[in-house]
């Protein structure tokens, strides 16, 4: 009996407040022994069932999140391995950042960084020929774009927040990759630092701008269909206003125009080079 009273007191002290716990125990002490034991057992059973239900729900949520992240990693790696489009010189575009930033929009920036790390690691051991330095550059590039966009979108979960985040992601990625290419590219390209500096504006700058614009436009086109599919599969929880959000035709048209413009720029750069 004393153990049950102590257990229930601890539970209510943890869950509510000292005042509420004291009132409850005062009421229990004025009840008959049998009645008191009955209510104590009810409280213990309720606590156990609620704890067990909460643990099952938490495990189910973690399993769904892990499954979704695994799927996004597989899709991002497939995009990086198969869809490699030459842009200028040796620089090639792949759409893996679209999937990485989608993971960041669904969950958080840390998830985007995790997906970027795992996909870049798989690239290093399979399709990449630049070793650890290429892995490092891929992680920096993807995180600069996806984590920046996901962070801003997390602060403002609206279309305007997504557009602002993607634009800031493109700017951050472009600026950061110009700096890192100047530092690291001579180590794996075999060029002198002066030669790499001469390629920053005619090659690295347009490549990163085209890459960022393609990723941003692709994300705006694909994010809603992907999330809708994940929600129907019960892998991602639905928000109360999820079904009320409308597709903005202007955003879709602007995204398509950006993709077409980037393709024309790629053709121009390839023809010129």
How would you sum up this structure in a few lines?
The protein has 273 residues and is mainly alpha-helical. Helices cover 82% and strands 3% of the residues.
Number of strands: 2
Largest sheet: 2 strands, antiparallel
Helicity level: over 70%
* Structural class label: mainly alpha
Distance between the termini: 86 Å
Question: Widest sheet: strand order?
Answer: 1-2
β-sheet strand percentage:
under 5%
Q: Count of helical segments?
A: 9
Task: Reconstruct the topology from this structure.
Layout: H1 2-15, H2 18-29, H3 33-82, E1 85-88, E2 91-93, H4 96-106, H5 109-125, H6 131-155, H7 159-189, H8 193-232, H9 249-272
Antiparallel strand pairs: 1-2
Helix pairs in contact: 1-2, 1-3, 3-4, 3-5, 4-5, 4-6, 4-8, 5-6, 6-7, 7-8, 8-9
């Amino acid at each position: 009996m004393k153990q049950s009273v102590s257990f229930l007191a601890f539970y209510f002290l943890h869950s509510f407040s000292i005042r509420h716990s004291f009132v409850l125990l005062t009421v229990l002490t004025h009840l008959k022994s049998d009645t008191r034991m009955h209510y104590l057992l009810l409280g213990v059973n309720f606590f156990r069932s609620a704890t067990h239900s909460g643990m099952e729900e938490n495990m189910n949520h973690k399993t769904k999140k892990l499954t979704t992240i695994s799927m996004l990693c597989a899709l991002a790696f497939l995009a990086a391995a198969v869809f490699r489009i030459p842009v200028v010189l040796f620089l090639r575009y792949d759409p893996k950042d679209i999937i990485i930033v989608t993971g960041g929009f669904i969950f958080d920036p840390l998830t985007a960084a995790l997906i970027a790390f795992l996909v870049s690691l798989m690239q290093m051991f399979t399709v990449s020929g630049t070793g650890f330095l290429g892995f490092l550059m891929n992680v920096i590039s993807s995180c600069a774009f996806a984590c920046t966009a996901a962070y801003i979108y997390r602060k403002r979960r609206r279309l305007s927040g997504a557009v602002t985040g993607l634009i800031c992601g493109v700017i951050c990625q472009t600026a950061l990759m110009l700096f890192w290419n100047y530092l690291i590219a001579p180590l794996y390209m075999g060029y002198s630092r002066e030669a790499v500096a001469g390629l920053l504006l005619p090659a690295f700058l347009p490549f990163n701008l085209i890459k960022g614009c393609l990723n941003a436009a692709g994300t705006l086109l694909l994010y809603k269909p992907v999330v809708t599919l994940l929600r129907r599969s019960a892998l991602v929880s639905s928000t109360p206003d999820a079904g009320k959000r409308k597709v903005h035709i202007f955003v879709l048209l602007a995204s398509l125009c950006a993709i077409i413009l980037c393709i024309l720029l790629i053709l121009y750069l390839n023809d010129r080079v």
